[in-house]
Structures are given as structure tokens and as C-alpha cells.
Please model this.
Amino acid sequence: MKILSILSPVKFGGGERLLLDQGKVLLEKGIEYVIVCLNGSSEFEKFLNQENIKYFNLTDIEFKQTPTRKEYLFLFFKLLPKIFKLRKLIQKEKPNILLSNGFPAVFLVPLSVLFLKVKPKLFYVHHSQKQKENFLIRNIYLWFLRKYEKIIAVSSATTDSLKSVFPEIKEKILTIPNGIDTKRFEIKESKEELRKKLNLPDGILGICVGRLTPFKNQKFLIKVAKEIKRDDFYILIVGDGDEYENLKKEIEKEKLEDRVRLLGFIPSDEIPYYLKASDIFLYPSLKEGFGIVVLEAMAVGLPVVIFKEIYIEEFGNNILVANSEEEFVSYARQLVESKSFREELGSKLKQDVLKLDIRQVAEKYLEVFEK
Model:
């Protein structure tokens, strides 16, 4: 079996990590796995090279920030003339499976195989909850989705949203949850050793990892630090993005420079060490398809606090889900004040995440492809 997985990568994040881990597992199983990047991503390419995963770039367009819907639409029109290049690549590589990931791959892949005498099987992976569209857009989407053997949703919530918007093809839609390589988070060093190595403070460390964008809502963590008035409680914010300067100014305005620390960009392969060195994972994001970083925090045994807007049942029942800002702060305070509560929740979450190990997830994909 040979699989071409096609996507538009942004800076290396959860989705890119998922495909990287998935590719490693499939290659170990003797399956040919090739990634086609519709646009460039130097960071993603670095990791692909490290893991010896074969890839092609259709263009050298790079996103400098988290792309908006308009920017994705702009990319789609720039890529339209490239479908002939993609078609030639498909003919050259001769895959059995074409796996489209998100927009604009969902449209470009069916167009690239039109009129081919021998067509690979097409599968589509939808990574976020589908919003209702107007009549014209919905029907365009529906036409393209009918070209796929199966539409794979990365969570039960995503599945429900797709079936709600496209009831005509609900028999094509199934759920395969995202996963992580849990072995990456088996770290021998102790929390104390890691803090010394990473130059992190002693005390109770809350951590948040993600791109610094408004919908990730890292600004709210400044409020959490203000509300929980303890000199031994610190919040580490890992990531870069458009909100960096705004967050820095807000932290300085509230005189919280000692307790809320912007660590900036940390390479993906170092993130597990920062998580293991921490005590609590505070993730105030208001919009996610499937928060891979939540699974990563679970894998090192951190208790997790999130808002209900991003909760999905695949996270299990041991995650703390806040219905309001006040409840988020309350959960954070309980975790700060009780070491036994932190350890109890963290231990349960570490067990919960094992069912989402990337090896099990890859097996589910293979079952669908083989059927």
C-alpha cells in the first residue's frame, strides 16, 4: 500500500505533529507514506527530514501566522493552476490512497484526478467542527465530498457537525480520533532535574502551549494569575505569534512579570520536557478542532483545565471543564492548593490518553483503507 497525504501546513503545530507521528508508524509497518505540502513550511520540513519521511512541496508559499479563512481561500485560488502539477505527481508516485487533510486539499485533490484512467481511492480528513454554509457553498462542498470513499472526522463532535450539515452523505462519515506518540512523553528525569536544566522556577507551575492568537485566549491567563495571589504560583506561556507583544504589555501593566512568563517559541521536540517540569496544564482556548496539546499534557500526567467550548468526549471524564471564567479560575485554584488533587487527576489522565496512542489510531486508518 502507498499513501499520499496532502495538506496545507502552517507553522509546526498539533496537526503537523499528528501527520508526522502517523507517518512514522506507517513506515514502520512497511507502508509507503509520502506527504504532499500544498504550500511551504520550513519548520514542518525540518521534522520531515529528521524522520526521513518523503515529501513534496507544491509551492513555496509560507504562512507567517495562523491563517484566516480568507487567507485559506486566497491560497486555494493561487493553487488552482497547480492541480496539473499535483496530477503529474500523483501519476508519477502511483499511490493506492490519496488522503486529503482539510481545506483547500478537499477541493484540489478530486480536481487533480479527474479523467485519470486509474484513480487511487480518495479519503478526506476533516479536522474541525463544520459550520453551516449558505446554499451555494454547501452544495459545492457536497459535490466534492461525494468524490471521497469515506470522510474521516477527528472527533465525535466533528462527526456530528458534518452529519448535520451534510445529511445526504452521513453513511460516508466516520470518526477516527486524533492521537499522539505517548512514548515521546516517557521522560526519565524528575520534575526537579528538568526545572534546573530548563532554568524554571521552583513552586507550582501552570503551563500553556500554543500559538499566540486571540482565539487561543492566552490573555485570560493573566487574569488567572491576578486572581490566584500566591508568590509560589507561576504561569508559563509557550509559543509565538501575533499576540506576543500585546501579552507582554498586559503582563507589564499588571506587574506580573515575575509570575507570568512568556517563553516564546520552544522547538516541538523540547515541549515534553517543559510539560513534565510543570504541575498544571491551563488551556483557555475558545476554538479547537481537536487540541492535540491537551493529549500531550495528559501523557505526562498533568491535570488539565479547559473551557467547555473545546471539550470533546475523546478527552474522557477526568479533565476539568469550565463553563465560565470564574469556574476556570476556581478549578485552577483547587489544583494550586492541593497537591493530592493534582496527582490524582494527572494519574487518571495519563491512563486515559493511552487509548489515543498513535499506533492504535494508525491501525484504525488502515482498517478503513483496506475495507
Q: What stands out?
A: The first helix runs from residue 14 to 28.
